[in-house]
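Extended Data, panel c. Modelled sequence:
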Amino acid sequence: MTLNLYCLRHGQPTGDPSLLGITDRPLSDHGWQQMRNNVSQISELHQVISSPLSRCSAFAQEWTDEQNLPLLIDPSWSECNFGQWDGMTYHSLWQNHKDEMQSFWQSPEDFTPPQGEPLAQFTQRIEQALLKLEQNYQGQNVLLIAHAGVIRTLIAWTLNMDYHSASHLRRISLDYGSITHISIFRDDDGVLWPRLVGMNHSVESVHAA
């Protein structure tokens, strides 16, 4: 049986570019439109799952009501918690914490923001959530509305990348509102065969190309 998992990154949030983890900043008007434009490309869904943060869940609740689809809000799919840095603008972080930011940017697996969630802990949380999702929704088409860090981790798991290098966080580009499609086939022996079917697809990125 095959799970088709469509991962929709939330749209552009309000405010200046910031290190958004668990900070609950809402979507901008443009962010709403980005998600509407791209989610319309997916059909025959059985289940929608969303991070509880409002930049994901507000759209999820409105859209599933319109489409008459079941919705599960699951905190396991929240973005990484960046501790004391969470919600701070990149400009402020680089201005006031330059050395620490360089360490974090270059080696997030070795440097955790003050009171933040270690990368290894975040990765384990997302992998466990994915395996639980696969068990519960085998043979179904599921839309997951989540965050860039979450979706990059799912891509890394699919491609069997080394989590500890954190290269997936630096090298995988995901646009706001983009869709990434992962299929996971479970054979008769219970072995999982994941495949990256499509990545970072959006109306805006296609037009930009």
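The chain has a mean pLDDT of 93. This feature is highlighted in the accompanying rendering.
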